[in-house]
Structure formats: structure tokens, C-alpha cells
Amino acid sequence: MGLLKFLKRRQPSEGEAALGQGWGILVFENTSEVIRAEAGLRAAGWEVKVMGPPPELRTGCDLVIRFPLIEQLNIIRSLENLGIPPLEAVPVTDPLLKPVDLFLVKDLGAWLMIRAANMKLTVEKESRKIVNISGGGCPDVPYLAALMVGRDLESAPQPRELGHTLCGYALQLAYEEMLRKCFQS
Asked: Which of 24, 53, 138, 173 has its CA 20 to 30 A from that of 69?
């Protein structure tokens, strides 16, 4: 039984996470690679989080993946097997290297707004109806807004089903965070 516990994937403790110890970030060439890498790592059971890169590591891609540093070799091997090797894997040891959380949650009285990266999703709290989608500047944003605004969260299509850009991906993150906020018990 002790051997099985040893083989279980270790996540950094809360204390390590607060200090940035035990975490690393994966830097990729472009957003498409980040999206594919996140999906592949999650499918393999890894606890990863997409975040904004610290200024020192910006490469033109607006996203990085935070991962448990102790699993760096296994995670990089998994990504290489998927054909998505990162440009860089960096331990988060310096406060300046901490990735930036993508979410900003703002309570606007009767409405709740969540910003993920450059996209904003606003919902009327009582009805859970989507009242506004803005931001981005990508060509699929007006299309996504037309399909989602006016619908409640449960019946609105998920942005990942229809979007094809970084804005669509960011809107999906905002949508998932909004579901968590609106339906937490």
C-alpha cells in the first residue's frame, strides 16, 4: 500500500504553492500549442493551469501552462509524445517569474463579470442570463456574442464548440469560471 502512495502524482502543498515553490511554467511558441498541450496533459491526468506569462518570459504567446515541478520530466516527455514540446520549462522560484492569473471577477450589483485574458463575460446574477460579451478583437467574437447573449448559462453553447481563436479560448475559460461561480454550493 505504501508503494502505491509513493507512485501517486504529487501536487505541491499550499505552502509551496504560496511561495511559488513546487511549480514550473511551460512556455510555447503560440496559443494553439498551449491549447493542445493543456488538453493533452489534462487528458493524461495532470493537474495543470493555463495562465498569463510573467513579463520576463513573453514570447509573443499570451499564455503559459503552470505544472507541478516535480513532474517536469514526465510532463515534457508526454508533450514530446504528443508532438508539442515546449520552448522552455522554467521553475517558478522568483516572485518576478510568477505567472499571472487570467481571471478578474467583478461584482457589479445585479451582474457578475468575469474577465479571462482579454475577454469579458457578464451575467445577470438572479436569472443567470448572459447579458454581455466583449473584448478580444478576434473575428469570431461577434459571432459568439450573437449566439450566447440573451441565453442562460445552462442553454448557451460553449465557446469552445464554436470559436477558433485565442478570444474564443479565453471566452471558454471565462464561461467555465462563471459556471463555477454561479453554481457553487
From this structure: 173
